Amino acid sequence: MPEPGPPAAPSPLVLGIETSCDETAAAVVAHGRVVLSSVVASQGALHAPYGGVFPEVASRQHIRDIGPVVRRALAEAGVGLDDVACVAVTYGPGLAGSLLVGLNAAKGLALARGLPLVGVNHMHGHLYSNWLHVGGRMRRADGGGDGDGGGAGGGAGVGGTAPPGAGDDAWPGDPPFPHLLLTVSGGHTELVHVRGHGDFRLLGATLDDAAGEAFDKAARMLGLGYPGGPAIERAAAGGDAAAVRFPVADTAAPLDFSFSGLKTALRREVEAHTARGAAVPVADVAAAFQAAVVRALVGRVRRALASAASARSARSWRACPS
User: Fold this and answer.
1) pLDDT tens per residue across span 95-121
2) What's the rounded mean pLDDT across residues 134-154?
3) The sheet that has 179-184: what strands, in order across it?
4) Dihedral sign, Cα of residue 72, residue 78, residue 82, residue 83
5) Same domain, yes or no, for 128 and 179?
6) DSSP three-state, residue 225
7) Does residue 59 contact residue 95 with C-beta atoms inside 8 Å?
8) How many CB atoms sit inside 10 A of residue 169's CB?
């Protein structure tokens, strides 16, 4: 009878902490790519009366939430701090006070346990989210499930072998290189040429508000509440986007974005109805505003792809699974 082999090497676990804006988040990741747990405490309701994120309120709430969120992330992964190999934390960009809470918590944990501390750029986190798997189950390229829905025990565990594609080797669902990345969030709107791991080139970014911030401000003008993105989308569902034609700003750099003119056009549309004593057609205006933002985003993506094609480098751009 053959001798049993050595036990499988335990998976290096990373505890990740993120507090860049108004959400306190922590996650435990195995094999570099398998999310065993992800816990998020949102402050949306807290900031709703202000119509946007109030930085001082955000940082104080992070202080209250950071401990419980980290403890829950560890518990849901079924591990303790003794199982963690390093602590990763967002160092920026973001709100200074919010970032400070996460950084101090991560530094304290790393120092107390003698663990390495890894600073992570917030924007790189957006980019690399496309390589993550959930609960040991592979993230399907079509966004659908992959079996039983995963969970902390979905095949990764704390030790043993990694699920297919969880390590450095490519999995068919991984984004191919090179590719074009569009990041749209509350604080950033960027187009990036991703040529390989750690090899990025910024092609365009917003010159003023990010798309998400523009949605927040538009929702406030229309009395729709916060957060603005979901509020605008709900209102737009019953509206006619063709009823109002909002402009899409052109920029000196063809792949940059600008949403300040769009906000001004929205404000003037609202003021024109108010001056006439007429009710603002909120659903139509919301639908038109949403359509204008989408036109701006899609237009820049198409322009970037056309530019690559005209330079006879179309083969350097490949479509990512969505």
Assistant:
1) 999 999 999 999 999 999 999 999 999
2) 38
3) 179-184, 189-196, 199-205
4) negative
5) no
6) coil
7) yes
8) 9
pLDDT tens, position by position, 9-38: 556 899 999 999 999 999 999 988 899 999
Give the domain CATH number at 88: 3.30.420.40
Q: Strand pairing partners for 13? A: 30, 84
**262 Cα distance to chain centroid:** 23
The span from the CA of 274 to the CA of 175, in Å, is 48
Classify residue 14 by its DSSP letter. E
Domain boundaries, position 322: 175-322
Whether residue 117 is found in the same domain as residue 191: no
pLDDT, one tens digit per residue, over 223-258 is 998 899 999 999 999 999 999 999 988 888 999 999
54: tokens are 């109030």
Whole-number Cα distances in Å, 223 to 217, 232, 236: 10, 10, 13
CB-based burial label for 89 (10 Å; 0-12, 13-18, 19+): buried
Q: How many domains does the chain have?
A: 2
- Output the pTM of the full model: 0.79
